[in-house]
């Protein structure tokens, strides 16, 4: 098992620019979800009506984004597990906590619950909807950091390829 993990992390490091880019793209799709969350259920809770409503059949992009959340969490978690593995400090651990709190939201406090609590159609405390919303917004600093890591990795990768056989000094 140890050899397999060492091989995986060696592969991960060799392909870091690709891995962090895939993670960032998948995670960026969650911005669609955050926009919907802000302007539909959250806006409705504050102002008694949503800023906009997405009716079927136009809600399918939100559904697709929801299906990318688990791969996004897994790929972005690998970015920060890799940092912790290499001796990362508090920031990658905090980001791992922010990221993985999403599992609570995915499996317990769902988007349906957030919407239903705004409509008064749930027996659970409405305050849980705010917990779910807060959990979703914990993604924002991680999304920004993942984009920074992607930009840095792509810059380094481009900078390393000057010409055939030519190395940077």
Would you kindly provide a written description of the structure presented here, covering whatever features stand out?
It is a single chain. It is built from 9 helices and no strands. 21% of the residues are buried. By secondary structure, the chain is mainly alpha-helical. Helix 3 (30-47) runs parallel beside helix 7 (111-118) and helix 4 packs antiparallel against helix 5 (90-100). 75% of the residues lie in helices and 0% in strands. The chain has one domain (2-156). It is elongated and about 55 Å long.
List keywords for this structure.
mainly alpha, single chain, 0% strand, 169 residues
Detail the topology: elements first, then pairings.
Layout: H1 2-14, H2 16-28, H3 30-47, H4 60-85, H5 90-100, H6 102-107, H7 111-118, H8 127-137, H9 139-159
Helix pairs in contact: 2-4, 2-9, 3-4, 3-7, 4-5, 7-8
Number of helices: 9
Distance between the termini: 38 Å
Which range best describes the helical content: under 10%, 10-25%, 25-40%, 40-55%, 55-70% or over 70%?
A: over 70%
Tell me the total number of β-strands: 0
Strand content: under 5%
**Backbone shape:** elongated
The biggest beta sheet reads: none
Overall radius of gyration: 19 Å
Low-confidence stretches: 161-169
Structural class: mainly alpha
Number of domains: 1
Mean pLDDT: 80
The topology string of helices and strands comes to: HHHHHHHHH
């Amino acid at each position: 098992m140890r050899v397999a993990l060492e091989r995986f992390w060696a592969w991960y490091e060799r392909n870091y620019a690709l891995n962090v880019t895939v993670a960032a793209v998948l995670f960026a799709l969650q911005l669609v979800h955050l926009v919907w969350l802000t302007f539909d259920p959250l806006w409705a809770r504050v102002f008694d009506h949503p800023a906009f409503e997405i009716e079927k059949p136009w809600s399918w992009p939100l559904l697709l984004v929801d299906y990318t959340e688990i791969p996004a969490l897994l790929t972005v978690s690998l970015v920060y597990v890799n940092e912790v593995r290499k001796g990362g400090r508090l920031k990658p651990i905090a980001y791992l906590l922010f990221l993985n709190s999403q599992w609570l939201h995915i499996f317990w406090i769902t988007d349906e619950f957030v919407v239903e609590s705004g409509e008064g159609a749930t027996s659970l405390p409405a305050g849980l909807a705010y917990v779910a919303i807060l959990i979703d917004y914990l993604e924002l600093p991680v999304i920004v950091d993942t984009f920074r890591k992607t930009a840095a990795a792509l810059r380094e990768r481009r900078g390393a390829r000057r010409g055939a056989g030519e190395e940077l000094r």
